[in-house]
Amino acid sequence: MTDSATSSAATAAPAPATDTRVLVPLALFALYVIWGSTYLGIRYALESYPPFLLAGVRFLGAGVALFAFLRIRGAAMPTPRQWRNAAITGILLLGFGNGLVCFAEQRVSSGIAAVAVASMPLFAALFSGMYGEWPSRRETVGLLIGFVGVVVLNLGTSLSGSRIGAFALLVAAMSWAFGSAWSRRQEMPSGPMNTAAQMLCASVAMLLVGALTGERLPAHPTVRATAALVYLAVFGSIIAFSAYLYVLKHARPALATSYAYVNPPVAVLFGVLLAGETVGPFDLAGMAIILLGVGAITLARQKRSH
Hints:
About 80% of the residues lie in helices and about 0% in strands. The chain has about 300 residues and is an all-alpha fold. The two termini are about 20 Å apart.
């Protein structure tokens, strides 16, 4: 998959290495900021929408819009094998990975959700290692630094949780990590069509789960909840998820999953700015350590590529 992707990229662009050096940092910035804000967005949307239908409607709207746009522009329809792989990956990443976060945020704060999901890069390193792609020594140091930062950040916030919420977040992180590692070695739809196909498949699964668990869409949702749902669909799904799939294809797993370490401090900052939460010394220390870990991973990637 890597060889074919490299050859097709070389055909499409005269200087793919230059494009990657520019687009990977831009995509990471989108992941750091946008996905860091989605935890608060989910919290607002849950004021009116039940968790699994929230995820299903979010990905259905985003998937249909992106799929229609791509088809109008002449993008190729995925093959049956690509649909199958997109369905498996979409259910792992978006169904379990995001649907369970929505479920957990009924019981835990948005901050604790972001902190728990930050364990995902460690699972990603494990699952990638099962395919022979273990993180380098420097990347391992960065991963461990980032994990320490998450622990420190957790010490500084008044977070409450439940066992079922914590378990759901752990399964979400493991599912996202395994889906990311598995999809790198499969034949997936090309470009943005990969995003659209995964969202469409995941939306069907989430809507089915919501219906089977007795969820119902609200008759009179609040304006803030609906605005949050639209934000999650456009920015959290179409823009940020496309950026993630791009980074996952063009960068090493340790760097591609580094957003999970940056999202907790970003989520805390959004909570301070928009929800009136307070930041203590542990919070600031945790953010600094997390950013140090991400810096170590980035430097390790640059040295490895030379």
